[in-house]
Design a protein that fits this description.
Length: 258
């Protein structure tokens, strides 16, 4: 999977490629990450890539032409036939929230993408209207640039690729995974069995696989109902909640909103 990134700070990505389990995705070539310094496509003595916004106001706006020139160079280098071109993506507060389903779909399709990391007050809207296929967001908050969002998305995709995680089933038990009906994962424990007077739940020490599975499902439902009742509603709509589980959920109170 080839991922191209247009950024003012390519150095931010380099340590990420050398750390943790997702490093395998880059070492093996499962992800080919190409970083493009936007200033390389700027002109003039100062190689400016931004300017003041029309209408006034604080901050600067990234100019359309350097971004267009960088994108043109990337598309020429990728040389993809019409109809098979990778989507051009901007990370933006206006974007669709990234979900497990979206990330999983990208990992399965092995399609690749061209990611644009915005900075300052944003990107000239004319570039977005003409060239951008999708806008993505990490959530309802603002970052100083798109690099952190791009790294987070890359990490989420990389760990779903074959051979990246040591245990192929590891991501199958992740929160939001269809194998958990889109619910949150249950709590986990490790040695010692007793820590500061608190013992690991007995079911996890039993060796009884059915009892362990039942305990984990129970805890997953409780944790999700308290923290993310919206996920319970989604599972309910899909028919993933049994009548017995509905009885359990009736006794669980959602965590108060703060």
């Amino acid at each position: 999977m080839r991922i191209d990134v247009i950024t003012l700070f390519p150095d931010l990505f380099e340590p990420f490629q050398r750390q943790g389990v997702v490093r395998r995705a880059y070492d093996s070539g499962a992800i080919e990450l190409r970083l493009w310094q936007l200033r390389d496509f700027a002109t003039g003595n100062y190689r400016r890539i931004d300017d003041r916004p029309f209408g006034g106001g604080p901050g600067m706006v990234m100019a359309a032409q350097p971004l267009t020139d960088a994108l043109t160079a990337i598309k020429a280098d990728r040389a993809e036939p019409e109809g098979q071109r990778a989507p051009v993506v901007v990370f933006s507060p206006q974007g669709e929230s990234i979900t497990h389903r979206q990330v999983s779909g990208f990992a399965s399709a092995n399609q690749g993408a061209i990611l644009i990391c915005g900075r300052y007050e944003g990107i000239d809207q004319r570039f977005i209207d003409r060239h951008v296929d999708q806008q993505w967001s990490l959530g309802d908050f603002v970052l100083s640039g798109g690099e952190i969002a791009a790294i987070a998305w890359l990490d989420a995709v990389a760990r779903l690729l074959p051979g990246v995680l040591g245990d192929a089933d590891s991501h199958g038990q992740d929160s939001f995974n269809p194998s958990l009906d889109g619910l949150l994962d249950c709590p986990h424990y490790t040695r010692p069995e007793v820590w500061e007077g608190v013992r690991v739940p007995e079911a996890l020490l039993s060796g009884n696989h059915a009892a362990i599975a039942a305990y984990r499902r129970h805890e997953s439902l409780v944790v999700t109902a308290r923290s993310r009742p919206d996920l319970i509603e989604a599972a309910r709509r899909s028919g993933s909640i049994s009548p017995a589980e509905e009885g359990l959920l009736a006794t669980v109170k959602s965590r108060p909103q703060t």
